[in-house]
Write a structure and sequence with these properties.
Rossmann fold; five-stranded parallel β-sheet; 3 domains; DNA-binding; DNA Cyclobutane Dipyrimidine Photolyase, subunit A, domain 3; globular; Serine Threonine Protein Phosphatase 5, Tetratricopeptide repeat
Length: 424
DNA sequence: CCTGGAGTTGTCCTA
DNA sequence: TTAGGACAACTCCAG
């Protein structure tokens, strides 16, 4: 008996899943699989909360399938080796996936597609993660956008509310129940930090609250978009006309996905080489203070502590902490980017990279280099009653809280000078 | 090809 | 107290 395989990656849901729906319409039974990729996992701590979240999400899918005498086959190893074994053990006709736009994933998929092809197996991938992908929103001459506003205008001009996939019958799943390995068997243990459930109702207050870090008014959609436990089509189909500011943020997400695809050099280099000459100080002990939230600037420290303790950080505070690292401490944005990548539950290469380059002033459509946030001004504006900083800095106001590690005016003019000298 | 308007999220100084 | 301009030009993009 021939099988169709649906390979789950970052689309960890049954509802409104493009590739899965397509697979279930093929003539064969569908075996869903997931591969815990050793090459990615080996970089992580053994209590990484994101692995916990992936595991929990798979467990939910598996439980649902088990109600229908089916299951998810969970494997661990290097994807290429795993696929070699799968080809031997099963009679596979085709493999269905949702497209992934990150450099590592693109390369992985190319290799596996070639491997499958050599065995006469079809590899199909579908647009699912985004509304418009890399080549769909382009300038009239066919080249990609590098500025957000014209990109967004084109996006909105083309946009029609997407159809979500209708519910399906479970009858076409392959009727085998595999036991799911435990988290420990995968080499991980449970984490104290948890991904929170999303709340689409919060989207209504987004525009007025997005600048106020104390208002717990965020939707917490980030990790769910990252791992596909909700579909972006579903989110957008729930939006009202007055949610335009929130929609804008989803368009930013697609803007940076598109930038990463079309300009892959941004992963390691400045989008604008003009700034390649900026000499970073890259002081290790300064960096450590920033990481640990002990800079002496409460807005920066509160943000870093929120990140360290919860895996989340408010949008406004991400800008302030990032700007502080690049401008006040003159530390290479890549250091900060790597730290956020390690800690953020909603870490996404394209957005993280795009926004760090924005903060550093080296990116496409970035903040001008001379725009330097004043952390005390930001505190006055966005946390007037100091409730956010007091929430995260318990020793605030006591001797235990450090003095500012660098004086603002001095750091500001030092940064301006470094950028002016480094620019070409 | 030329042209003109515009560009996520600020801050500081001066009048 | 507050409003306006400087910061620094440059590149992008549509017409």
């Amino acid at each position: 008996m021939k099988l169709t395989i649906h390979w789950f990656r970052r689309d960890l849901r049954l509802a409104d899943n493009t590739a899965l729906s397509e697979a279930l319409e093929s003539k064969n039974n569908v075996l869903p699989i997931f591969i815990f990729d050793e090459e990615i996992l080996s970089e992580l701590r053994d209590d990484d909360p994101r692995v916990n979240f992936i595991y929990d999400s798979l467990k939910l899918i598996d439980q649902k399938l088990k109600e229908h005498n089916s299951s998810v086959l969970c494997l661990k190893g290097k994807p290429f080796e795993i696929w070699k074994k799968l080809i031997q053990n099963y009679s596979i006709e085709s493999v269905y996936t949702n497209k992934d736009y990150e450099p590592y994933a693109k390369e992985r998929d190319l290799k596996i597609k070639a491997l499958l092809k050599a065995h006469g197996i079809e590899f199909l991938s579908f647009k699912d993660q985004v509304i418009y992908e890399e080549q769909e929103i382009v300038k009239n001459d066919g080249s990609p956008y590098t500025m957000f506003t014209p990109y967004k205008n084109k996006w909105l001009r083309l946009f029609t509310c997407p159809d979500t996939k209708p519910p399906f019958s479970f009858i076409n799943f392959y009727k085998v129940t595999f036991q799911m390995p435990s988290l420990e068997e995968i080499g991980f243990q449970s984490s104290n930090i948890r991904v929170r459930n999303y709340d689409l109702l919060k989207v209504d207050d987004y525009a007025e609250n997005r600048d106020l870090p104390i208002n717990d008014s965020t939707s917490y959609l980030g990790p769910h978009l990252r791992f596909g436990t909700i579909s972006v089509r579903h989110i957008i189909s729930q939006l009202k006309p007055q949610n335009d500011v929130f929609l804008s943020e989803l368009i930013w997400r697609e803007f940076f996905i598109q930038i990463l695809h079309n300009y892959p050099h941004v992963v390691h280099q400045n989008f604008r080489s003009k700034y390649d000459g900026v000499e970073w100080l890259n002081n290790n002990s300064d960096f450590e203070k920033w990481c640990n939230g002990r800079t002496g600037y409460p807005m920066v420290d509160a943000g870093m502590r929120q990140l360290n303790e919860t895996g989340y950080m408010h949008n406004r505070v991400r800008m302030i902490t990032a700007g502080f690292l690049c401008k006040h401490l003159l530390i290479d944005w890549r250091w900060g980017e790597a730290y956020f990548a390690k800690k953020l539950l909603d870490y996404e290469l394209s957005s993280n990279n795009g926004n760090w380059q924005w903060a550093a002033g080296t990116g496409c459509d970035a903040a001008p280099y001379f725009r330097i946030f004043n952390p005390m001004e930001q505190l006055k504006k966005f946390d007037k009653d100091k409730s956010y900083i007091k929430k995260w800095i318990t020793e605030y106001g006591s001797d235990a809280y450090p003095e500012p590690m660098v004086e603002h005016t001095f750091a500001r003019s030092r940064a301006l000078k470094a950028y002016q000298i480094g620019m070409n």
